[in-house]
Amino acid sequence: MKRDDNCIFCRIANGEIPSRTVYEDEEFRVILDLGPATRGHALVLPKEHYADLFEIPEELAAKAMVVGKKTAAQMKAALCADGFNLVQNNGACAGQTVSHFHLHLIPRYESDGQKIGWNPSEPSPEELDETLKQILG
Ligand code: 5GP
Ligand code: ZN
After folding, report:
1. 61, 81 in Cβ contact below 8 A?
2. In the 3-class helix/strand/coil scheme, how is the chain assigned residue by residue?
3. What is the pTM of this model?
4. 102 annotated active-site
5. Biggest alpha carbon–alpha carbon distance for the chain
6. Ligand 1 surroundings by CB, under 6 angstroms
């Protein structure tokens, strides 16, 4: 079992620090975020420590999405949410503040006033082609 003793999410996920748990199984705990973007904002935490998307094994990442889907569906109905954002941050510049992989489940309400998004840019077709070329190598 991969674990980092200094990691708060390792301790929460494994039940060493109490949390408001929405769902738990052998591999995951889903908890209410202490600084919610909206009412019901929750985090899917794997019990094993992986820093981010690039460290977590593919199979566990896939299971995190399944847990996220099931829990989001249950929360959407129970909380009468109008929509849902799933957000997953990697790296400080992308907004990751806790280096233990987690998937945000953010219920949305028509009048919640939250902004979760980005400012769209307007690249030329040449710039898009260049980007595609770089990605495909
Ligand atoms: P990140 O910015 O890394 O994507 O998300 C970290 C999230 O964890 C934030 O939304 C923050 O409010 C939440 N968080 C940080 N520490 C704790 C904690 O001790 N307990 C809970 N429940 N949430 C936390
Ligand atoms: Zn951890």
Report:
1. no
2. CCCCCCCHHHHHHCCCCCCCEEEECCCEEEEECCCCCCCCCEEEEECCCCCCCCCCCHHHHHHHHHHHHHHHHHHHHHHCCCEEEEECCCCHHHCCCCCCCCEEEEEECCCCCCCCCCCCCCCCHHHHHHHHHHHHC
3. 0.97
4. yes
5. 53
6. 8, 12, 19, 31-35, 43, 89, 95-98
Residue whose pair of structure tokens reads 């953010």 in the numeric block? 106
How remote is the CA of residue 120 from the centroid of ligand 1, in Å? 27
**pLDDT, block means (10 residues), the chain with 137 residues:** 96 98 98 98 98 98 98 98 98 98 98 95 98 98
Tokens representing 102? 């987690």
